[in-house]
Design goal:
Two copies of one chain form a homodimer. Chain A is α+β, with helices and mostly antiparallel strands. Chain A has five helices and twelve strands. The radius of gyration of chain A is 20 Å and the shape is globular. Chain A starts with a strand and ends in a 14-residue tail after the last helix. The model of chain A has no long low-confidence stretch (mean pLDDT 92).
């Protein structure tokens, strides 16, 4: 599977993705799922991918070619005027790839070509924006009410995000939150695994932010995993006891 | 959906189940999913059910009839000699119900008759045991390595169980753990909802233990939900900060 999270903070966007790809538990490998295109001073665009690896690699290659070759730069994610138009371009490219693969195959296998994306970034003086793009090519945008997106194995790591996320939190706190969310997921689903990739985009910087890989046995990840275990137990012990005596059984 | 958890402690078994049943989000109601049969001094058997409501209600009615009418008491969960034999009887009864419904319907609808069960209890001087029963009628038993079972919407509430569960924890601590696990699930999945039903079986008591319903707006549930939110935030803040400067970006 995969686990990717994009958090839209007031101060920027934090992206984190695992790197495990698998076709069956007996065939796993490591693949980068976070991709950044940057035209310094003009725009930074980061994409995270979950789903069929052939689909997502083709998507990234197509976006790459169109952004690198001047002759193909129309349309390109480096020339679209707004993040909304970038999301439309990425969404339509994704849909074309999936439909192309479907046409050459039987209906039965069609669902397995699907992919889901998180796209975020900023263009010149406009707001930084974050999108979730579906295999159909349509998309939704992060708002004040739902300020983060997850793709892949989203359930195990979701409760802590709902509890801990605040728009005005620092990048350091956001990183702790993501580390815990990924740790919960990695402990419960073998198809999500280290290394983890991080990109922290700072609002209005219009250049690549902190990019970092947390490898297997990363000391920070290990420290978080261990301290979180004891912090959670302390939190549990701090909860009030139920007084079984005072409340009627059928309250 | 449904969420039920059975924890096998050294001191007994704690069962908790939600009560929401739904067919679509526009059709929800409240149903008891936890059922206890008791022959004081001889045995206590508790069953929790997830899945098709027609299937699980039929199952409970059949087990009830066989345990109440002396003429039908062979086989009955009140006469089987061991918990293992009780699990076999419940499993085969479940499979028969599902197969009976499948036969009278098209194959397409067959999957929707499924149900999954958690069964636990104790018979005379034998160990207290906990089983997870599949729609096929076969089952697995809780062991030292996997000492609890979840059915229904299992993912949101699983990380805290993995982190917090200890075989020798007190019933009060186990209840806190379950409350948090249910709270995480209820906050993220509309098809799991209050009231919550609890049964705490005390090892070697051979009688019904504490049975309790936590209704909507239950003060203890509300207190747990609120204090857990702040306890989690404190736990997050207690985690170490990453020093971005000292570790190379491609460590």
């Amino acid at each position: 599977m995969t686990y990717c999270v994009g958090l839209r903070l007031d101060s920027g966007i934090v992206f984190m993705a695992d790197t495990r790809t698998n076709s069956g538990v007996d065939n796993i490998s490591t693949v980068k799922k976070i991709h950044t295109w940057c035209s310094p001073g003009d725009r930074v665009i980061t994409l995270m991918t979950a789903g069929n690896l052939a689909t997502t690699q083709t998507l990234v290659s197509l976006l790459d070619e169109r952004s690198m070759l001047p002759s193909k730069r129309d349309p390109s994610i480096l020339t679209e005027p707004t993040m909304f138009q970038v999301a439309r371009l990425v969404g339509s490219t994704l849909r074309e790839i999936i439909e192309g693969q479907r046409e050459s195959c039987s209906q039965a296998a069609a669902a397995s070509f699907n992919a889901t994306l998180i796209l975020g970034g900023q263009i010149s003086s406009m707001d930084h924006r974050l999108f979730l793009i579906y295999p159909e090519g349509n998309f939704i945008e992060a708002t004040v009410d739902s300020p983060f997106f997850q793709i892949g194995e989203t359930k195990y790591g979701r409760p802590i995000l709902l509890r801990g996320f605040e728009r005005d939190m620092s990048v350091a706190d956001a990183l702790k939150l993501l580390m815990v969310s990924f740790n919960s997921t990695i402990k419960t689903n073998l198809s999500v695994g280290l290394p983890l990739d991080l990109h922290v985009y700072s609002r209005d910087s219009l250049e690549r932010g902190i990019e970092r890989r947390f490898p297997r046995n990363d000391p920070y990840y290990t420290a978080i995993s261990q301290t979180w275990g004891s912090a959670l137990k302390n939190a549990l012990h701090s909860l009030p006891d139920l007084d079984f005596a005072t409340v009627p059984p059928d309250a």
